[in-house]
Amino acid sequence: MKQLLYCVLALIFTPALFASEMPLNMTEGVTAISEQVYSLHMIILYICCAIGLVVFGVMIYAMINHRKSKGAVAANFHESTKVEILWTVVPFIILIIMAIPATKTLIAMEDPSDADLTIKITGSQWKWHYSYFNQDVEFYSLMSTPRAQIEGTEAKGEHYLLEVDKPLVLPINRKVRFLMTSEDVIHSWWVPAFAVKKDANPGFINEAWTKIDKPGVYRGQCAELCGKDHGFMPIVVEALSEADFDNWLIAQKQAANNAEAAAQAALSKTLTMDELMTQGEQIYMARCAACHQPNGAGLPGVFPSLIGSPMIKGPVADHIDIVVNGKPGTAMQAFAKQLTATEIAAVVTFERNAWGNNSGDSVQAADVSSDDANPAVSGASTAVPVTLPAELPAAAADPATSTVTETVSETVEDVKAAVLDDLSMDELMTMGEKVYMIKCVACHQAAGTGLPGAFPSLVNSPIITGPVTEHLDIVINGKAGTAMQGFSSQLTPQELAAVITYERNAWGNDSGDAVQASDVDGHGK
Description:
Layout: H1 2-17, H2 32-65, H3 81-109, E1 117-124, E2 127-132, E3 137-141, H4 147-151, E4 168-171, E5 176-182, E6 187-191, E7 196-200, E8 206-210, E9 216-222, E10 234-240, H5 242-266, H6 273-287, H7 289-292, H8 310-313, H9 316-325, H10 341-353, H11 365-370, H12 402-418, H13 425-439, H14 441-444, H15 462-465, H16 468-477, H17 493-505, H18 517-521
Parallel strand pairs: 1-5, 4-10
Antiparallel strand pairs: 1-2, 2-3, 5-8, 6-7, 6-9, 9-10
Helix pairs in contact: 1-2, 2-3, 6-10, 13-17
């Protein structure tokens, strides 16, 4: 009998005593919140073990000592006020004991105030887009597991399906606030080591935060069933020391400038068909194959085939437009901010000549950049900047020399001077709507209604009905202590003027104000 009791006790308490060493148990993580969550988890586990011990102990005792073979006679009673009170009060007390630490942990998890850094995380099928507020750094993060491993023709790597081309880089010892949204369906950003798991809903903004204690690489994935390739949407976070993170930010800005100059220089280059097809195939396999399949056949009823499709047979300009701007109401994303003009030209060329299409069309970067329907395409894939003239010298591809740097600077100044020309109201509204739908819609919504309690409505708001100069100031410089970032380094004066004009005249605002680039350029001077 004693041996049986010992076995029962061992079965009940072993999970609790060795929980921290069990591979299937929750991990402690690398943040204060994750440690609180782990502690809460263990407290509840211990309470459950204690309840199990009492309940099963009483059951086993009753079965052994009050069995029929020992002549036990069942008691005959109908009600007991004491028992009724006991089994009501005791569970109530247990729930209160559990609720106190749980409430403290939940309140701490939902407090993103006083953050040192804010990052907007946007999910889309099937990638993550990270934008560092007030740092002019943004990029897409895609799974980098080779297709051969997925198809089983190569051995799977150590971090199979949990590796990306560009990890999210964060500093340790700084509070980081996350603003999460989605461009298409519901996703969920989940990193177990941080105890952060928050849904990214289209049209809404959710908040979360973390403060990492030690450097390292931490992995997670989308935790919401978001489509056929849901399992191919990993998250990788690289935590750096504060000094290393600051150096990383500087390096990213410099790399973006270099990439911009190189991409603009590439606009004057003509690639051969072989070069376009080789580069286009690489981009297609990385960016397009998930939907349209490696053989271009698509998925009937879900994603269209590209083999002999009307888009392939139609005008090149229409093909470029759908790749650059996407197609509203479908899963076709806009790649204007994700790919350079050269990469878009290459993938369009590949699609028009692969799988027996053989159109013979050879699309160049200049065709993409100069296309009238695609003013948002830029040399770099980070913002909606001005497209420099195709006459930019090829030497500008190497910004390391002072001569090239001066050439690029002079060209940029020429472009800046050119874009200060006044535009008509129709031109401002058309450009402003495009800029708004790329840069502002995630927070303020397509109808300008915002998200109550999170992002203000722009419909007849005080900023819209107030002086233009105040509207200019908040768009250019942002608003400290809020999620409103400054766009002075992300948009040109003409784009700033256009989006402000659009906001002041769309959705029934009808202020009649037509802001020009010269107004923006002179603001604050």
